[in-house]
Amino acid sequence: MKWLEVSLELPGELVEPVVDLLTRLAGGGVSVLEQPKDGQTAGSLLTVTAYLPIDSQLQAARQRLDEGLWHLSQISPIPPPAYRTLAEENWADSWKEHYRPIPIGRRLLIQPAWLDLAPGSDRLPIRIEPGMAFGTGVHPTTRLVLAALEDRILPGMRVADMGCGSGILSIAAAVLGAGSVLALDIDPIAVDVATKNLAANGVGEKARVDLGSLTELQRAVARDGRGFDLILANILADVLRDLLSQGLAGALTPDGVIVMSGILEDQTRELLNACQGGGLTLVETLAEADWRALVLKREPPPDTGGGEYR
User: Fold this and answer.
1) Nearest Cα to 256, choosing from 233, 240, 272?
2) Going from the N-terminus, what domains does the chain have, and what CATH number goes with each?
3) Under 8 Å between Cβ of 52 and 27
4) Quick one: pLDDT at residue 309?
5) How far apart are CA 60 and CA 33, in angstroms?
6) pTM for this structure?
7) What is the pLDDT of residues 236-284, one digit of tens each?
8) Is 37 helix (H, G, I), strand (E, B) or coil?
9) Distance CA 109, CA 137 (A)
């Protein structure tokens, strides 16, 4: 079978709706890669690429794509997509052509699993094979969480990674000294990809991946008799609001910290209101282009002498 590659170069605020549209049409998966601008990643355009099978359904898929992009362009201008035809043996690896190691913060290096580590590097490598799961390290939301993680992690911490995708944040937490990591995702493909990435990075013993979301997180708290010191949640803002309303903050230990990303600048205020309702206090806001990451701390209730608080 041959495949039609569809690619668009977009600013960050347009990536989410276009990826959503392409995911519904593309049988060959969707990838998001960043194109550095003058050697810098901040403020860069993101290239969204999808692969449509060239079969009897291609014409209908192209029509739905054109209609969807037209509707989105009524909100904000969208450049026309570029197309090229790929043979079966080339499509799965074509998106890797421009993927390179990415230094993050002071100590981390996102290392593509298919490339050799450069000799003499003093950074901690995180080897990633994204597959069809979100989380290659090139998106601003991922980089913001990694930067916050580097500043907040302490040896032996109990960490949870909500919506783990490729497992990149879980691996980073483990190599930076976490005592244990619970990675959760509702997508079975992500669970499989993350499990393989954890094993490839040699952290499979201290980090595990489970299928699930908040219910599984709360079960882990009940089972182990304690909350998490640090929760990482790089998900959509709407999902974050839902999780907060369902008690996400309650899975933290007293003075525990949560890092939330996947948030556009104009979504920040509404999400902060939801955080306050959950007993969370803003500690820091990290920004890159239009994206924000919020670092929040759980405030323990007043000590009334009524027993242990977890």
Assistant:
1) 233
2) 3-96 (3.30.70.120), 127-298 (3.40.50.150)
3) yes
4) 42
5) 27
6) 0.75
7) 899 999 999 999 999 999 999 999 998 989 999 999 999 988 889 999 9
8) strand
9) 9
